[in-house]
Design brief:
With 144 residues, the chain is of the alpha+beta class. The chain contains five helices and five strands. It has one domain (6-142). The chain has helices spanning 6-11, 21-33, 55-72, 125-128, 133-142, and strands at residues 16-17, 40-43, 81-83, 91-94, 115-118. A hairpin with a 7-residue loop joins strand 3 and strand 4 (91-94). The longest helix is centred in the middle third of the chain and has 18 residues, at 55-72.
């Protein structure tokens, strides 16, 4: 049996969708108020951050990502942000409104979020969830 990295275990955990914009506003409010938490902001696809950001940077990020989501996802509902615990968040997934795929439904291969805010130090997510080498070889045989 292989050990699962704590970040990956959290990533695969249960999440609540912020379906309404008011729910997202409440989540941002909770995160803005708690200056004691040390958040990592991870833009998935880039190298994971080496350490947490300070609280003013978190506030700046929340302001900018909220503006971006409202601009790019011009719907009456939100549905692009998921959190492990809305009242005491430790892990937040923010999906790119222009690359949703089936992020809100079930899929064996859902799209990765665009950004992750986590109290746990992130790992390289695309690398961590790559198919096993034997699966990659299987796919390569199709085109040989």
């Amino acid at each position: 049996m292989t050990d699962v990295h704590p970040f990956l275990a959290l990533f695969r955990g249960d999440f609540y969708g912020m379906l309404r914009w008011e729910q997202l506003d409440t989540l941002w409010g909770v995160m803005r108020q708690d200056a004691q938490k040390h958040w990592h902001i991870y833009h998935v696809g880039d190298a994971p951050p080496e350490g947490p950001i300070d609280h003013p940077k978190l506030l700046e990020f929340i302001t900018h990502i909220d503006e971006l989501l409202h601009k790019e996802h011009q719907e009456e509902y939100c549905g692009v942000v998921y959190v492990d615990n809305p009242k005491d968040p430790a892990f937040v997934k923010v999906f790119d409104p222009n690359n949703l795929g089936v992020s809100c439904g079930f899929s064996d291969n859902p799209p990765l979020p665009g950004w992750i805010l986590s109290l746990q130090t992130p790992i390289d997510l695309p690398e961590a969830i790559k198919p096993a080498k034997n699966r990659q070889r299987w796919w390569q045989k199709i085109f040989d």
